[in-house]
Amino acid sequence: MNLGGLTPDKAPPLEAPLTLFLLLPVFLVVTGALLIFNGDQLLLSRWTPTTLAVTHFLALGTLAPVMCGSLLQVSPVLLGAPYPQARRVAKVTALGLGLGALGIGLGLLWSSTWLLVSGAAAIVAGLGVFLVASYRALAPLPARSPAGLAVRLALLALATAITLGIMLALGRADVIALSDRLALVDVHAGWGLAGWIGLLLAGIGMEIVPMFYVAPAFPRRARIWIPLATFALLVLLTSGGLVQDSTLRTVAIAGLFLFYAGYNLAAFRLEQRRRRPQRDANLWLWQGSHLGVICAAAAWMLQQSVVLVGILLFGSALAFMIGAVTKIVPFISWLDLQQQRIASGNHRVKLPHMQALLPPHRSSAIAVSLLGAVLMVLAGHLATALVSLGGAFLLTCGLLVAYALYRSMALRSDIAHQLHQPEVAPGTANVQGMVHGGHPAKKPPHAA
Amino acid sequence: MSFQETLGQQHRECDFALAGIEQAAVDGCWPDAEKAFEDFLTRTEDHFAYEEQVLFPALQQANPMTAQPVSVMQSDHAQIRELAADLQIAIRERRRDLLQGASETLVFLLQQHNAREENVLYPIAEQLLDPQQLQLQQTHTGRR
């Protein structure tokens, strides 16, 4: 009998996902700063040190921590699979990703083999621990849920992307000889982008998009076949790399773009058919993300530059993950306060709603700054200086995310402090006024 | 419709009713919001009544190990009722800001709660309880 996810002590502590989420603003700022100073290098080629550094800062420093943190949080709920020792796993993973992203990014930027290999070792340690913990969490799970399938395949893709990344780092350090480095880079990028990032975002997205917006569900058949077909195409891409057949690789990449364009189009249409009327910052970010992937597929089909396709894909992934963070953080903070209130027995303190913990105007500012960053970097094809302006937007976005997280944590901490104060006379607890503007004591709604 | 499908369908109907409240508030049509709230509350309390009076006790009797998960679900129910009370106040006082805050939080809590029930608790119930015990749910919900 699998009771995972329903046992209170198996729920992830708030600190677990938050520890990982804190890397997001740090690396948004780092990447933004790099674009401000080296922006003119970004669009020249996918092989410039700046482009390689930006790619790895974003993939390992912003996307991977948010994806790992989100997985720690949603796995008990969606899959019934709580992570063992979630707090410790989060700390080690965050440390590995932070040091690894910095080492690999700077190693590529400064052509320092020592930094590159050290960074790769940190990634192996951090994500290795996460993969082992994921295996322990998911192994006992019956293979019946489509989301479980997508998450398992995404983790397998992550392990493959890391292995190929290590081979590339060792090849660059002349430790091993690589016969076709270009093909290996394509395969590495495929497993990282279409495998790890794409499968996880699509797999979890197909579950949470209908939930967050009360939209129609994706057909069960699609939820099973999209991850399986994507994985099969990645195997085809790898075969093309192994036998050095560029046609096979091109066919596989075309298939991946077609699948993801189709999925994102379907997700966009379902969101348009949602029952909840609000159009909040998160929805703008998610729909922008869907459109970004569709544009990336079109750009690839039209044989536009790989850098342009990459900007669209990374912009899309960032939009989806930042949107998710602006929803997950206030909700888990609210849940944590609820648990503390139950534990303290202090029911006089009125808890704020989620939106007080991360107000909509703050989420909107984050969304606008990210949109500005992506548009300016794309416009860099017209005037190179705009890439640096995009970097300034990205840096601003990082600072706004940091401020939103800080304010959310500070408010939660204030309320938690009040909850653990000796009980005060009714009306003196100030949280209610801070959030609701105060309202009279209420009666519970009648039972039906 | 199977036991799991019936309860899952009830979850969806509560979601739709809650979305109806939000739509009415966005349209500025507060009498419609009141009606939608009554619909939401009736559906939610009816569903909770089956779970609290029939399903949870049967589960705990069938296997005492389910006591802790059941208490987590009951705690969720209490929080959902508290947020529903906020929603009721927001509608009564015609306060869109309070309504948005309460409904957003309620949507998230309901989705987490529903996912845990549908992915973990209901499959366990179907394993532990015989079809006759699960049939009770059909007659219970049939009173609506």
Please specify the SSE layout and strand pairing.
The complex is a heterodimer of chains A (448) and B (144).
Chain A: H1 15-21, H2 23-42, H3 49-79, H4 86-109, H5 113-138, H6 146-172, H7 181-213, H8 220-242, H9 246-272, H10 281-301, H11 306-344, H12 354-357, H13 360-379, H14 385-419, H15 431-436
Helix pairs in contact in A: 1-3, 1-4, 2-3, 2-14, 3-4, 3-7, 3-11, 4-5, 5-6, 6-7, 6-8, 7-8, 7-9, 7-11, 8-9, 9-10, 10-11, 10-13, 11-13, 11-14, 13-14
Chain B: H1 3-26, H2 30-62, H3 67-92, H4 96-128, H5 131-141
What is the number of helices of chain B? 5
Derived from helix and strand composition plus strand pairing, the structural class of chain B reads mainly alpha
Distance between the termini of chain B: 17 Å
Round the Cα radius of gyration of chain B to an integer and report it.
16 Å
Give the strand content of chain A: under 5%
Helix content of chain A: over 70%
* Radius of gyration computed on alpha carbons of chain A: 22 Å
Please describe the biggest sheet of chain A, giving its number of strands, its sense, and whether it closes into a barrel.
none
For the residues shown, what is the average pLDDT of chain B? 89
Uncertain segments of chain B are none
CATH homology-level superfamily of chain B: nmb1532 protein domain like
Count of DSSP strands of chain B: 0
At CATH level 2, the architecture of chain B is Up-down Bundle
Largest sheet of chain B: none
Unreliable stretches covering 5 or more consecutive residues of chain A: 427-448
Tell me the number of helical segments of chain A per DSSP (H or I, 4 or more residues long).
15
SS-derived structural category of chain A:
mainly alpha
Ends apart, CA distance between termini of chain A: 33 Å
Total of domains of chain B: 1
| Helix-strand sequence of chain B | HHHHH
Helix content of chain B: over 70%
